[in-house]
């Protein structure tokens, strides 16, 4: 398992293989490719809808600006992800769809009945896929198979977000430009759908401080673990730092980028206390520089997933 060739997990493999590979992936790279996930057609339709939306004039997109509940349109410069001291502006725009969205909180093209139904279904399918992965992961950790899913109940509040992202085409940029600043995700797992031929995503090997590309493939999505798992596993699972770099400029090539992320989060009230797994029983959490920056807080009290999420977004958003 290495950052230069990320693990591939095939959902058509047998259970024991998946369980073994998950354990390996989560404790080494924190990122893996997922094959046979069942969302290929839906992913295409979601990209088509996202493109239609982002082509609209800014004033139309701004009709549903992001609100404190993390739902709505994020215009350029509103969310800057870098956790390092250099404050870079993310050259991107996004539309976040919160867990219990209503059609009147959506732009007209998303609110049309068939598109609305489709988005609801896509959100449900992403959630269901995350629950399947969390069930395998519980087996990898040798805890009750519903240990993680019982902390991700659909009917309980959480920060789950379906997010459409657009990185506009660029003709030139400076050293200080970035598409998405380096960060780790805040929740439990993230599904990332990359558009074919639109590179830029990179992962950081924290032990050597080296960045590696995560190329898009048409038949695989990308899965990564977030901060909740780094807490839950006392650092055994890596909430891997990633970013989206600026494209290599080539006048013959289009360089805009679209991506779609489903951020799965534990229910807001879930405590980020270690999993009762013998794999981590005797482990002490030795935080590296990123973990200190992202996970440490003023007092020793255990955070809930909801508190951690709020603390993280308070640092990256300007409303
Ligand atoms: O657009 C991408 O590929 C990654 C986006 C991302 O990492 C994020 O929004 O958390
Ligand atoms: Fe991310």
From TrEMBL:
What species does this protein belong to? Adineta ricciae (Rotifer)
Instruction: Give the family per the record.
Output: Belongs to the iron/ascorbate-dependent oxidoreductase family.
Annotated Fe2OG dioxygenase domain residues: 158-266
Going by the entry's taxonomy, the superkingdom of the source organism is recorded as: Eukaryota
Query: What does the record give as the organism's lineage?
Result: Eukaryota, Metazoa, Spiralia, Gnathifera, Rotifera
Keyword Metal-binding applies: yes
Gene3D superfamilies tied to this protein: B-lactam Antibiotic, Isopenicillin N Synthase, Chain (2.60.120.330)
Task: Kindly give the InterPro entries that the UniProt entry links to this protein.
Answer: DIOX_N (IPR026992), IPNS-like_FE2OG_OXY (IPR044861), IPNS-like_sf (IPR027443), Iron_ascorbate_oxido_reductase (IPR050231), Oxoglu/Fe-dep_dioxygenase_dom (IPR005123)
Q: What Pfam families does its record include?
A: 2OG-FeII_Oxy, DIOX_N
The protein's name in its UniProt record = Fe2OG dioxygenase domain-containing protein
What's a single GO MF annotation on this record?
metal ion binding
Q: Does the keyword Acyltransferase apply?
A: no
Membrane-spanning segments: none
User: What are the entry keywords?
Assistant: Iron, Metal-binding, Oxidoreductase
SUPFAM superfamilies reported in the protein's UniProt record: Clavaminate synthase-like
């Amino acid at each position: 398992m290495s950052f230069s060739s990320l693990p591939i997990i095939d959902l058509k493999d047998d259970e024991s293989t998946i369980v073994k590979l998950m354990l390996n992936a989560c404790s080494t790279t924190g990122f893996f490719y997922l094959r046979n996930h069942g969302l290929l057609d839906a992913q295409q339709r979601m990209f088509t809808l996202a493109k239609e939306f982002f082509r609209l004039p800014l004033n139309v997109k701004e009709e549903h600006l992001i609100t404190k509940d993390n739902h709505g349109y994020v215009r350029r410069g509103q969310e800057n992800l870098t956790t390092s001291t250099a404050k870079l502006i993310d050259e991107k725009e996004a539309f976040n769809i919160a867990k219990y969205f209503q059609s009147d909180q959506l732009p007209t093209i998303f609110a049309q009945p068939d598109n609305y139904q489709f988005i609801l279904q896509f959100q449900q399918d992403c959630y269901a896929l995350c629950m399947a992965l969390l069930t395998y992961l519980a087996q990898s950790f040798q805890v009750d198979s519903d240990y993680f899913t019982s902390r991700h109940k659909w009917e309980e509040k959480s920060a789950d977000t379906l997010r459409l992202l657009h990185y506009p085409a660029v003709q030139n940029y400076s050293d200080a430009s970035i598409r998405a600043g380096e960060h780790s995700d805040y929740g439990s797992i993230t599904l990332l759908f990359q558009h074919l031929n639109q590179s830029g995503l990179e992962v950081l090997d924290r032990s050597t401080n080296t960045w590696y590309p995560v190329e898009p493939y048409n038949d695989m999505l990308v899965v990564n673990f977030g901060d909740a798992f780094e807490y839950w596993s006392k650092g055994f699972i890596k909430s891997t730092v990633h970013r989206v770099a600026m494209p290599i400029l080539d006048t013959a090539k289009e360089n805009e980028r679209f991506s779609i992320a489903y951020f799965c989060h534990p229910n807001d009230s879930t405590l980020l206390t270690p999993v009762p797994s013998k794999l981590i029983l005797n482990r002490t959490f030795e935080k590296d520089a990123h973990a200190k920056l992202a996970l440490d807080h003023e007092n020793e009290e255990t955070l809930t997933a909801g508190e951690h999420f709020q603390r993280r977004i308070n640092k990256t958003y300007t409303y």
